Amino acid sequence: MAGASLLTLLDDIATILDDVSVMSKIAAKKTAGVLGDDLALNAEQVSGVKADRELPVVWAVAKGSFLNKLILVPAALAISAIAPWLITPLLMLGGLFLCYEGAEKVLHTFFHKKENHPAGEAQDFNTATLDAAEYEAQKIKGAIRTDFILSAEIIVITLGVVSEATFLTQVVTLFGIAFLMTIGVYGLVAVIVKIDDAGLYLSQKAGSIKQAVGRGLLSFAPYLMKGLSIVGTVAMFLVGGGILTHGVHVLSELITDAAQETALIPTVGTVVSALVPTLLNGLIGLVAGLIIVGLFSVASKLKPSKS
Fold this sequence. Notes:
Elements: H1 2-30, H2 32-45, H3 54-82, H4 87-111, H5 129-161, H6 167-193, H7 195-203, H8 208-247, H9 249-262, H10 269-302
Helix pairs in contact: 1-6, 2-5, 2-6, 2-8, 3-5, 3-6, 4-5, 4-8, 4-10, 5-6, 7-8, 8-9, 8-10, 9-10
């Protein structure tokens, strides 16, 4: 009897693991786009700190990300069981926040890039100890905050995939996706932010090939970080706008109709149809972000000043 019970238990475990494997693959495919945005956003968020502090900052953000998952996974399971209707509104609030942050970055780039700072004001965070510490803390805080929103979306998408599975399968799949996602994203972020150091190391080694590769990495690194900064900002609008359009069925239907209409265009219809949802999500995210920035700006001006 004991042997039969053990075999039954092992069979149940194997079945659960098989279900988890299948559902994890499906969830990974559905969240691939968000993971790409998560990578771009976090690589951009942790850039700009001192070279010897890059990996500690990445590690600090990764620890914050693990803590986010430890909060989000049980919360998602609880909300799904108690108040499933609450998931979409919470996600939309997160999407609005991403759009707001993206709009702030765009406006700052266009309207504050030529600001003149008083002489003696510390502008190089790498040379002013106090400013560097504050700047680093702000970077970590901002990256963890952004990670929380993106992680929430990924977990909710995964929850949708496993919604019909047993509770144990849901728990294992959600924690598995959360763990692998964090390891993968921040492992790649660590590699990206140290590309310039790898280039410097190779450029100083003996051998023309190593030196050429090193110089190439050194030349490539600034363009990569600049590109990630742009991609990260665009990703805020794409992810935030995508959350909003999925939450507002009218917008979702309009985007679907637009994609179907553009698919009828001769020759390029297929390509245009594939791009339309992404472009419209980004545009909606940008407009939503600008509106929120404008509302906050008006509110701050109307707020009575303290005498």
